[in-house]
Design a protein that fits this description.
Elements (H helix, E strand, L loop, with lengths): L1 H19 L1 H4 L5 H6 L8 E8 L2 E7 L4 E9 L3 E9 L2 E2 L5 E9 L4 E10 L6 E5 L13 H7 L3 E5 L4 E9 L7 E5 L5 E4 L1
Antiparallel strand pairs: 1-2, 2-3, 3-4, 5-6, 6-7, 7-10, 8-9, 8-11, 11-12
Length: about 190
């Protein structure tokens, strides 16, 4: 009986800590609270969300800036943001903003979140690859050639002007990412 009482007291204290101070623990009872009380800790709205396995990728629009966040449910009842990054990189043609957040999960793998904010309404899909650009001719590669030269090739559909994705990547695959914005005909109209 003493063991049950200790567990009840422990969980009651834990719940109170989470409920009254989600900023110090990082845990919240609701998704909205976890998203709102994590970096940048500003009001806003969810403009994009996508569930991938036990993870949810959301884009939180604060007005002046949008942030991509990786959200997980833990211990069956708590929510916590594990990664957050401003979608602030911009293509040289000003057609889309982008970001990558890679957080070391263990010794070999990274939790990697990709996001793009679309500034040109002609862009309906974003391709992320890690083939890099070694010379000027690499810009003119077909998507099939890009896929063949890449160990990471992700297609993201644009929803509400945003695209985002989560991947669990080996450390050798993280880096050299390129974002390509495609129009409805499948042509690349923006690259960074």
């Amino acid at each position: 009986m003493k063991i049950k009482k200790r567990y009840l007291i422990f969980f009651a204290v834990l719940l109170l800590l989470v409920y009254f101070d989600p900023l110090s623990t990082g845990y919240s009872l609701t998704e909205e609270s976890a998203i709102r009380n994590s970096f940048p800790n500003q009001g806003g709205e969810i403009v994009f969300e996508k569930k991938i396995d036990n993870n949810k990728v959301v884009v939180w629009d604060t007005g002046p800036e949008s942030y991509v966040k990786l959200l997980r449910k833990e211990l069956g009842i708590f929510y916590r943001v594990h990664a957050a990054n401003a979608v602030s990189g911009i293509t040289s043609d000003n057609k889309m903003k982008f970001t990558v957040d890679a957080t070391l999960k263990d010794d070999i793998y990274y939790d990697t979140v990709f996001a793009a904010e679309i500034l040109d309404k002609k862009i309906v899909k974003v391709i992320v690859s890690n083939n890099g650009i070694n010379n000027i001719n690499d810009i003119n590669l077909t998507l099939r050639e890009v896929e063949e030269k890449s160990t990471v090739y992700i297609e993201m559909d644009v929803i509400n002007g945003y695209a985002a994705h989560y991947s669990y990547l080996h450390n050798s695959d993280v880096g050299g990412f390129l974002f390509r914005g495609l129009n409805s005909e499948g042509k690349v109209i923006s690259i960074q």
